[in-house]
């Protein structure tokens, strides 16, 4: 068993250590620099401009969307557009209401508090946050048991920017306290090409338009992946060529890393290939499919399948997993039905 996790893959959307080190340099610093997500950008622009005109603190903002689409980047942009400082933390880091009280009580007026993975906060912290968001006040509990007392503490107005991979996971009372919710979608290929060009400029790598398109096409709609693939292509171009990235160089480099033209990696293709070659395209149960590819059930279900489903290559049905016609085409195989038809046609021709 490989026990593969999403963050160990070149096409994983969750940040790895190298991403952490270079992402800061690649982050757009203003809304004008932020590529794609036109609707979200326009809406956010209005929210922030209006707050600035009123000389008020911006409303609380909820950003939802898959990892690597730019939620942290947007939170930082909110702070810079409001000329406000930003404090960054995450749901899992706040286990006790006291942790949150300490952060909230040290905020400056107008500060942006970025709370990543807000759906993973503990319940007591969440309840404290309701009051802080609405009334800019927290009750700090002193003591334990019947002798415990709540001491109210006034907070300066601040802007909470919450990020979550799924807004549906948030309890409605929390969701309702955001003045503005932005849903971020996967990026269009053209937008990702722009991301590649922009990052290449910052990293001082020469990339021609076809090279950028080749990288964008394999980036699974995600800027973080586009930036990571660009770095691997840069290595290849430097070691095996003259440093310039063309479509040929990008394709060869990403073939070495087993990321195919549609952004599928070894694991994705192993799942599809087993489904097609061993089970005739399904339906087959998840357990059987996982054994066939030598991976844990969870790895197949949570790491490989979401992208295959999104790409319309695999479908989850009550009877099991099935491949779509596009899956056969992608792996260059002929579906059994078409094969049978072909045989019949040949007999008829005779
Ligand atoms: N619209 C964009 N234009 C240019 N670069 C972008 C854009 N969105 C994201 N990026 C780049 O993608 C990388 C990942 O973005 P970011 O860290 O903001 O994602 P995220 O959604 O917060 O991910 P996570 O939820 O995993 O923290 C950053 O290096 C950033 O530079």
TrEMBL record:
Q: Which GO MF terms are attached to this record?
A: ATP binding; four-way junction DNA binding; four-way junction helicase activity; hydrolase activity
Q: Please explain the role this protein plays, according to its UniProt record.
A: The RuvA-RuvB-RuvC complex processes Holliday junction (HJ) DNA during genetic recombination and DNA repair, while the RuvA-RuvB complex plays an important role in the rescue of blocked DNA replication forks via replication fork reversal (RFR). RuvA specifically binds to HJ cruciform DNA, conferring on it an open structure. The RuvB hexamer acts as an ATP-dependent pump, pulling dsDNA into and through the RuvAB complex. RuvB forms 2 homohexamers on either side of HJ DNA bound by 1 or 2 RuvA tetramers; 4 subunits per hexamer contact DNA at a time.
Region (Small ATPAse domain (RuvB-S)), start-end ranges: 188-258
- Region: Head domain (RuvB-H); residue ranges are 261-350
Give binding positions for DNA.
297, 316, 321
| NCBIfam families according to UniProt | PRK00080.1, ruvB
This protein's major location comes to cytoplasm
- PANTHER family recorded for this chain? HOLLIDAY JUNCTION BRANCH MIGRATION COMPLEX SUBUNIT RUVB (PTHR42848:SF1), PTHR42848
Question: Which HAMAP family has this protein been placed in?
Answer: DNA_HJ_migration_RuvB
Q: What is known of its domains?
A: Has 3 domains, the large (RuvB-L) and small ATPase (RuvB-S) domains and the C-terminal head (RuvB-H) domain. The head domain binds DNA, while the ATPase domains jointly bind ATP, ADP or are empty depending on the state of the subunit in the translocation cycle. During a single DNA translocation step the structure of each domain remains the same, but their relative positions change.
Catalytically driven reaction(s): ATP + H2O = ADP + phosphate + H(+)
Q: Which InterPro entries match?
A: AAA+_ATPase, AAA_lid_4, DNA_helicase_Holl-junc_RuvB, P-loop_NTPase, RuvB-like_N, RuvB_wg_C, WH-like_DNA-bd_sf, WH_DNA-bd_sf
- Descriptive protein name: Holliday junction branch migration complex subunit RuvB
**Subunit composition and interactions:** Homohexamer. Forms an RuvA(8)-RuvB(12)-Holliday junction (HJ) complex. HJ DNA is sandwiched between 2 RuvA tetramers; dsDNA enters through RuvA and exits via RuvB. An RuvB hexamer assembles on each DNA strand where it exits the tetramer. Each RuvB hexamer is contacted by two RuvA subunits (via domain III) on 2 adjacent RuvB subunits; this complex drives branch migration. In the full resolvosome a probable DNA-RuvA(4)-RuvB(12)-RuvC(2) complex forms which resolves the HJ.
Q: Where in the cell is it found?
A: Cytoplasm
* A GO cellular component entry from the record: cytoplasm
Gene3D superfamilies in alphabetical order: 1.10.8.60, P-loop containing nucleotide triphosphate hydrolases, Winged helix-like DNA-binding domain superfamily/Winged helix DNA-binding domain
Range of residues in the leader sequence: none
A Pfam family: RuvB_N
EC numbers on record: 3.6.4.-
- Which residues are involved in binding Mg(2+)? 72
Highest taxon of the lineage: Bacteria
Gene Ontology biological-process entries: DNA recombination; DNA repair
User: Which residues are listed for ATP binding in this entry?
Assistant: 26-27, 68, 71-73, 134-136, 177, 187, 224
Task: Give the UniProt keywords, A-Z.
Answer: ATP-binding, Cytoplasm, DNA damage, DNA recombination, DNA repair, DNA-binding, Helicase, Hydrolase, Nucleotide-binding
């Amino acid at each position: 068993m490989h026990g593969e996790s999403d963050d160990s893959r070149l096409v994983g959307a969750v940040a790895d250590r190298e991403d952490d080190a270079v992402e800061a340099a690649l982050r757009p610093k203003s809304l004008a620099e932020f590529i794609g997500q036109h609707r979200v950008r326009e809406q956010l622009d209005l929210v922030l401009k209006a707050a600035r005109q009123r000389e008020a603190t911006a409303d609380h903002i909820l950003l939802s969307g898959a990892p690597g689409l730019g939620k942290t980047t947007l939170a930082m942009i909110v702070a810079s557009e409001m000329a406000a400082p930003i404090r960054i933390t995450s749901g899992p880091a706040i286990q006790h209401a006291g942790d949150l009280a300490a952060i909230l009580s040290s905020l400056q007026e107008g500060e942006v508090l970025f709370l990543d993975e807000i759906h993973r906060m503990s319940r007591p912290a969440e309840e404290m946050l309701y009051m802080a968001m609405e009334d800019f006040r927290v009750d700090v509990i002193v003591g334990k048991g019947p002798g415990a007392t709540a001491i109210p503490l006034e907070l300066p107005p601040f802007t909470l920017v919450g990020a979550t991979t799924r807004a549906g996971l948030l309890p409605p009372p929390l969701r309702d306290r955001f003045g503005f919710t932005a849903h971020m979608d996967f990026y269009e290929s053209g937008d990702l090409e722009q991301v590649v060009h922009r990052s290449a400029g910052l990293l001082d790598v020469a990339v021609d338009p076809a090279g950028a398109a080749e990288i964008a096409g394999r980036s699974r709609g995600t800027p973080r992946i586009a930036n990571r693939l660009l770095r691997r292509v840069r290595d290849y171009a430097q070691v095996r060529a003259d440093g310039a990235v063309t479509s040929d160089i990008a394709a060869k480099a990403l073939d070495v890393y087993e990321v195919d033209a549609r952004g599928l990696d070894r694991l994705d293709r192993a799942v599809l290939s087993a489904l097609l070659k061993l089970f005739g395209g399904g339906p087959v149960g998840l357990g059987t499919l996982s054994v066939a590819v030598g991976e844990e059930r969870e790895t197949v279900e949570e790491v490989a399948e979401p992208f295959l489903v999104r790409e319309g290559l695999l479908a989850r049905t009550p009877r099991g997993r099935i491949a779509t016609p596009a899956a056969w085409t992608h792996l260059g195989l002929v579906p059994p039905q078409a094969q049978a038809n072909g045989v019949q046609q040949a007999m008829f021709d005779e």
